[in-house]
Amino acid sequence: MEHRTMNATASLAASITQFQLGRAASGADWDHVLALRYRALLQRGDIAENASQRHGDEHDLALHAMTFLLRRNGQPAGTTRTMLSANHRRWPVPATAVFQREIDEALGADATFIEMGLTAVGPAPQDDPRTALFHLFKAAVVHGMLENADWVITAVRENQIGFYGRMFNMQILSGPETLPGLLHPRVLMGLDFRDQMRILEKRIPTLAVTPADLDEFAATGCVETSLRPLAALEADRRPGRDRRPNPR
To answer: CB neighbours of 58 closer than 8 A, spacing ≥ 6?
Structure first.
């Protein structure tokens, strides 16, 4: 009996999916990041094949950029990059090359914002690929908290508009436009960080960032991330559903 109980416990532990989100730091981290991007963009038809099977750009090593690697049970599962454009210093970010007018009109000339981009999710047969997007979005939340941002923006494929709107309370800021280096158009979406973040973190508690989380990130480059089942998150967004947090 004891042997069966131990086996059941070991089986349950093995079935639990654990995610870790951290800044890409080592050469091995960057190799995973560039490979994840390449495979995702190639699969979507956004880039052509190249011999290195890696994808990067001139923004990767910018001082106002942070590149994150998400691991699932220790294995690379996804990546994203966040970039700062501060009201006191307008560093270059990819979106402004195409969407400058829309950004000025929607955010205002004095807004500090974080651009989230080059988001890629690797294959994970046991998970809905959207699960990784929730964990990756926390990268933008962390960077936004560190910089006291007003907005978070990202350029998404047209078939992702509904997901980012429903799940992350993001609004459409532009029509479809083609970004440099990508073949298929993107639509700019934005989250009013100051107005919507408290609402969002009540519905998706894993996106909440505490002072302790920021201290941990400053010390280790990593931040804790966990997630309710995706079906429960989607149920919260059904019309007529009471969206107040469960008091239990």
So the answer is: none
Q: What's 208-238 look like in SS3?
A: CCCHHHHHHHHHHCEECCCCCCHHHHHHCCC
Q: What would the pLDDT profile of 134-146 be if each residue is shown by its tens digit?
A: 999 999 999 999 9
Question: How far is residue 108 CA from its own chain's centroid?
Answer: 23
d(CA 208, CA 93): 25
SS3 state at 66:
strand
Is residue 224 very low, low, confident or very high in pLDDT (cuts 50, 70, 90)?
confident
- 101 has a pLDDT exceeding 90: yes
Find out whether 130 and 165 touch, Cβ atoms under 8 Å. Answer: no
Q: State the sign of the Cα–Cα–Cα–Cα dihedral 99, 101, 107, 112.
A: positive
In the chain the domains, ranked by start, together with CATH numbers, are: 19-235 (3.40.630.30)
- The per-residue pLDDT for 43 is 94
CB of 141 closer than 8 Å to CB of 114: no
- 8-state DSSP, 177: B
Strand partners, 115: 83, 153
Please name every residue paired with 109 in a beta bridge, in sequence order, or none if there are none: none
Closest CA to 91 of 67, 114, 120: 114
pLDDT tens per residue across span 104-135:
999 998 999 999 999 999 986 566 677 899 99
| pTM across the whole model | 0.84
Q: Which amino acid is at 142?
A: V
If 0-12 CB within 10 Å is exposed, 13-18 middle and 19+ buried, where does residue 79 land? buried
Q: DSSP character for 207?
A: G
Q: Write the single-letter amino acid at 70.
A: L
